[in-house]
Amino acid sequence: MKAAISPRRCRxxxxxxxxxxxxxxxxCATIPASVADLxxxxxxxxxxxxxxxxxxxxxxxxxxxxxxxxxxxxxxxxLAIRVPLGPDPDGPxxxxxxxxxxxxxxxxxxxxxxVNASSFGVLGYPEGxxxxxxxxxxxxxxxxxxxxxxxxxxxxNPRYASFYVDGRGVPRIAGHGEVPERDVAVREAAAxxxxxxxxxxxxxxxxxxxxxxxxVGLDGRGRLILVVAEGRRLGRSEGLTLGELAELMYELGCxxxxxLDGGGSSVLxxxxxGWGYRVLAPPTDGAGPLRFxxxxxxxxxxxxxx
Length: 306
Fold this sequence. Notes:
- With 306 residues, the protein is mostly beta strands.
- Helices cover 11% and strands 36% of the residues.
- It has one domain.
- The strands form five sheets. Strands 1, 2, 3, 4, 15, 16, 17, 18 and 19 form a nine-stranded antiparallel β-sheet that branches.
- Helix 1 (15-25) runs parallel beside helix 4.
């Protein structure tokens, strides 16, 4: 693991831990109107499909927050994980994928739920520089490991940790410097930044910027946990720091968790029976009423198993 991270369980409660505890207790939970009439499990979460439940938590401490939490019991629901990629625009050329609307990725993969996944750089821009606007079809270099249906489109990079599904269909999280595709068959994969929880211990304690966040985790029963925290929306939801995100994933029961790409890329798409696809986390690119979803190179999806 990254040497700068010293895994330990947080012992001193702070605002983020209070926030996370509120999440675990289910306080202030609300559900968007489009899914309000769906069945609920004994915990009060909305059942989107067999084995998949959803809840939204609204908080006003330590700041205004809306956090979307999805849990998928892959065995109980006959579910599978996919990491759909935008098409490769140039074959053997330098682009590994092109940016695609996450709603299109959800429809194409027949996802039950979908969140954004890997960070990326747009070809033609130096590292660290961004285009004035992200457009569908832009060729990109995906940061770290990316695989879709057994095809590795982007190799591991020691700067990034990874979420992947091995040849037996088991989801796993690899740390910095690990190269899953070298050691095992990789069916699906997406790179993230730093691990948030490692073997049941909080691994990310930094404060840092308050931003929209997306994370993936695995709890003690092997269930998949997906979290999208809305941000950059004064009066609605301002976002989380990395430390707060780590504590949140820990309080949700994750024994391993990974910080995925966030900021303007953070998005959540769900398929609601009788309603079709809904984007539950509003976009942050643009300004005022003129906001639009950022296209992404890949996404992490839960689909019905075959």
